[in-house]
Amino acid sequence: MGSGAGRGYEVKLRKKDFSAKHAPSNPLGETALFALYTKGWVSVKSPFDRELELYLEKQIAESTGERRRRLTEVNRHAETLFLRKVWWPMFGNFDYLHAEWEVPDLWKGVRFLDFAYLRYPLRVGIEIEGFGPHARYADRGKFADDHLRAAALTAEGWIILRFSYDTVNEHPERIRQLLTLLIGRWTGIGEQAPLLDELDKKIVRLAVKLQRPITPRQVCEMAGICAQTARRRLKALTEKRVFRPHGGVTRIRSYELCTENERMFQWMYVE
After folding, report:
1. pLDDT tens digit sequence for 83-101
2. What is the chain's percent helix, strand, coil content, to nearest 5?
3. What is the dihedral of CA 264, 122, 52, 127, to 10 degrees?
4. CA-based torsion, 33, 39, 42, 44: positive or negative
5. What is 48-187's CATH number, 3.40.30.10, 3.40.630.30, 3.40.960.10, 3.30.300.350?
6. Does domain 198-266 have CATH number 1.10.10.10?
7. What's the whole-model pTM score?
8. What span, in angstroms and rounded, lies between the C-alpha atoms of 70 and 99?
9. Residue among 125, 208, 202 at smallest CA distance from 159
């Protein structure tokens, strides 16, 4: 337990006759708080537990049908462990993360991902697999279907990450390192991602689709804007390190996606 209730811990009194001077507005010292906690006079909720409760309430409120059933009835111990040991220490929030995310597949069926991280340009599916249901008791049909599902999602632009329960429980730091390589390379952990509006996204999609440097003229034709606006947009995207100049010395003639971000954009769904 941290040094008192002043580090974001939520303290609730359980005894009606307990003195008001011990209320959370007057933070207790560690010794006093621990004594009250062990006697059952107060309940202590960590910042993680408090935010997790709010997060799940929001996810359930936004869900319907089978997704709601999964969020309310299915045992989510492994998923909660992932949030506690991996996600929360990295981000300190659950922004852009959706639980039991419903994804239509190519065969007009529906799949569910344990978590979906949706932050442009990334669409990352995260699954936590216990040894029992995913390996020991999996039949050949289930085994084949799992691989087919992962392949279909990848073809549709998803990045699929699958972690075992044991790795989450025993080596969460390894998963955090992998997520830092993937998500942190584009967004920067703890930093703001480049803000891209709809026109910026269309320009990026154009570069991904053509697989070569693009020119202001191509942007003009694609978006129906003037040359000056196209050059201004490409210059702004260059300042955000999305693009870099490719041709021209005194005047830039074309732009290419930055190499360090290019692999991220390859997985982006191109309309």
Report:
1. 999 999 988 899 999 999 9
2. 50, 20, 30
3. -80
4. positive
5. 3.40.960.10
6. yes
7. 0.58
8. 9
9. 125
